[in-house]
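Standup, Tuesday
Yesterday: got the pipeline producing structure tokens again.
Today: sanity-check two examples.
Blockers: none.

Example 1:
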Amino acid sequence: MNLMRIGVAGVGRIGAMHARNLTSLETVDELVLFDPLPGRADALARELGVEAVGDPETLLGTVDGVVVATPTDTHPQMVRRTVAAGVPTLCEKPIASDIAAMIALIADVEASGVPVLVGFQRRFDPAVVELKRRLDAGEMGTPYLVRAVGQDAAPPDLGYLPASGGIFRDLLIHDLDAVPWLLGEPVVEVFASGSVLVDEAFAKADDVDNAVVVLRFASGAHAVLTGGRHDPAGYDHRIEVLGSTQSLAVGLDPRTPLTSLEADGPQAGLDAYPGFPERFALAYGNEMRVFVEVVAGRMANPSPVRDSLASLVLADACERSRREGRPIEPAAVLAAAGAAVPPTTEVA
């Protein structure tokens, strides 16, 4: 077994979690940390018994692969640095904050031939991966309808709202990535609506705290996505797919914060998930394992940069639909960005 040296750039909450998961992998021999905030990488390095470096150039010069979890506005610059150095990368979403910038970055990444994975953790969740396998194998027959629920247990820090990008880019972006990926077909129309029911701070930030999205796919199948910023019973994320031969769900387990009023129905447990790190603990661990396999050349990239463009276009279509009160075609949003999507050149 070839052991590897992996770097983590940015060790805030998500980066620190990735670093801890990497230390548990037998295939990772050494871990190197960097953070632009002085002292933060050193503190985590001491805790984990690994190495810290003071600048990204040093990091990239010594590793086989790197996880980028620095602030969002640094992602394009960091990813360009990693591919220029020839270092396979996993970058937290989004790789860029607007469509034109993302298209330009996709072109640079694919021209480099360096694998870059986007950190949509639901693509790495074992139950979601199995759902994808069954859909691809035709075991569910013709998909009729997808229902996705995404409820935060508690609202985010209200000071975060102006920089969050809004509920579609921040909360529902994961469903806007996962659901089209699961069905494997394009969305042709989006309708979205939202309300402020939790806190007026969302309205002051020009955002909403509860939203509903309807996606219409090329086949005629539909998806209904719901998202909210407050569920007092706990964090809740589920995906249900209804097909012509069977119906399946992920995220439905004894910790799901939902109570049935039927006499023998499931009851919400006292140990409901408090947040996404707990709900997707298996996904985050598997994400690092898969990334290391991609770095080693033993696995294909399951979350390429080009895929992440679709979710950003859909999020922008949702926002436009909410504001204009009408259905929006994603193709029109992409065209309005004024940048042509280059033909696929990514090396498998």
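Example 2:
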Amino acid sequence: MEKTEQSVVYIVDDDEGARTSLAWLLNSVGIQTECFSGAAAFLEAFDPQRPSCLVLDVRMPEISGFQLQERLNAIASELPIIFVSGHGDIPMSVRALQNGAVDFFEKPYNSQQMLDRIQSTLKAEEQRQPERARRILLRERMKLLSPRERDVLILMLRGDVSKVIARELNISARTVDVHRASIKEKLGCQSSAGLVRDVVLAFGPQILHDGPVS
């Protein structure tokens, strides 16, 4: 793996001592880290295409750990989050895990347990990286679609044939076929079956319930 693609652990904690201590622990076994005292600075530096995980403090000024988790979820980020808190309780840990966190540690935590959890998380992320890169690329390519092409795509995902799509959108079947070809080209998919598989993989099954844009 090239240096620019090396896995990284993002550490976001307003406690400088906690950041430094964890970074030292991880660096000592060859794990690269990037430390931030707040969520805003992290969001500016975060690279979604890089294998990584986030060790995140719950209580921070301005943007809390839970608020940062919500922002990442809102942009469909797949970044695994390990929460840490000096004031943890069961409801707090349940909230974190229900919203997608992979673990929750109370400070002071056992260093070896934290190291083991981070290493296993990074290993899993590295294995999933090719698939994730494909999803990220597809999401970017989706932005190239026109509103009408997105209308056609949504109906394609439901399994509608060109004549049905044409009737639904009040356009000709020939125009639908032109849009279908353009969609495949822009998204880099050779077949309709591959297109459906890739789009559902990138956006989740909820996209099947979206309606036409206009």
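Quick observation on example 2: The chain has two domains: 3-134, 144-209. The first helix runs from residue 16 to 27.
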